[in-house]
Every structure is written in C-alpha cells, then in structure tokens.
Write a structure and sequence with these properties.
There is one protein chain. The chain has 207 residues and is of the alpha/beta class. The protein contains eleven helices and six strands. Strands 1-2-3-4-5-6 form a six-stranded parallel sheet. The N and C termini lie far apart (43 Å).
C-alpha cells in the first residue's frame, strides 16, 4: 500500500512529523524517502524568536536565502508573541499590510493560519481592507484561517463588496465572527468563487 500513495499525500503526511524524524521515513520503503525530505521547509511556525524575521526587512531576505521561501504552510501567532506590533500600527491601517507585504517573499506559500489576534486588547478586528491586502500580497493562497473577529462593513461600502476582485485560487477559508452581517456574506460571495469549504465560527463558541 505504501508504494501506491501519491507523492502529494506523502508530503502532506510528512508535515506532521518532527523534522529529525522525516529521514526515518525512508526505512519504510524507498518511495517514502524523498517526499518527506522535500518537506523540510514545508511548514514554518512563527513564534517569539522568529517573529522578527517577518518585521525586519534584512532578516526576511536572509531567511529566504536559506530556503525558507520554499515553505508552503505558515502558522503565525501575532496576538501571543508580538501584540505590540499590531497594536502600534493598527490605527494607521498598516499592521497587516506590512506583515502581508513581507510574507509575499515566501513565494511558495499557499496555506496561512493566523492565531489569537482576537486576544489583542486594541485593534483585534479584521477589516475588509485587511482581507483585500492579504490577497493583494499573497495572491497564490489556497487556504486561509484567521482567528480574529470580523469588523462590520459600513453600509456605504455595499457597492464595493460587489466589485471586489475575485480570489479564484482560494479553496478553503475559516474566519471567526461576532456578528457576520449581510455585507460580509456579500463580500465572501463575490470574492471567493471557487470555494470547496467555507467555515465561520461564532466568537462566543471560542470563549
């Protein structure tokens, strides 16, 4: 059975192994040797020691020269490890724009998860402009999960929700909401035309 598993399935399974364990996959069978090793940079987890790589122009360039650009999955916990950065820039509307712009250097990235932004006391909401910024900078995304409350879209933005540029590569999205509202539904309907899975979780369930 092992020899019949497709390469992409083997690569996906390998992302759940510790990096030092991926070399042992070759002991199962010859076909299991190369795919796990090719996923060494498949997933990045941003924590308190690596968050600066994203917000520092020089260090992101250094990381990319060390094969980090090959990562196709990124988990980042901004609320836990660097809330000051978000709180400082959120009033200017530049917080996520700045981060998404730097993440655009990860040219293979297709799977993005942002955790616990809802725990930030100030500026914890995601605006429609933030989602637009994400797609403008990371147009190759297939999967997006953002653990943050969606800010209500003003009624005067109704026409804009209907005229957004669609993100046709997106297959799966997952957002947290407090009160999603009809304008967000309109936005999602026009933005994501090729969805396979659409998951929105009420904020009260998480609390």
């Amino acid at each position: 059975m092992a020899t019949k598993l497709p390469r992409n399935i083997l690569q996906y399974l390998a992302t759940y192994f510790e990096r030092q364990e991926r070399g042992n996959c070759g002991l199962v069978c010859k076909q299991w040797k190369e795919p796990p090793l090719s996923t060494y940079w498949a997933k990045l987890v941003i924590d308190n020691t690596t968050i600066f790589t994203i917000i520092d122009e020089f260090r992101i360039k250094e990381a990319c020269t060390k094969d980090a650009y090959r990562a196709w999955t990124l988990d980042i916990n901004l609320g836990k490890y660097y809330p000051e950065y978000i709180s400082l820039l959120q009033p200017t509307g530049l917080a996520l724009e700045s981060i998404f712009n730097k993440l655009s250097k990860l040219i293979c990235l297709v799977h993005l998860t942002i955790y616990q932004m809802s725990s930030i006391e100030h500026g914890q909401n995601i605006f429609m402009t933030d989602i637009e910024s994400l797609h403008r900078n990371l147009s190759h995304m297939h999967y997006i999960k953002i653990d943050a409350s969606l800010q209500s879209i003003p009624e005067e933005e109704m026409e804009r929700t209907r005229n957004v540029k669609s993100a046709n590569k997106i297959k799966i999205i997952h957002f947290i909401y407090d009160n999603i509202g009809l304008l967000w539904i309109s936005y999602f309907a026009h933005k994501y035309l090729n969805l396979v899975s659409f998951n929105v979780t009420p904020l009260k369930i998480l609390g």
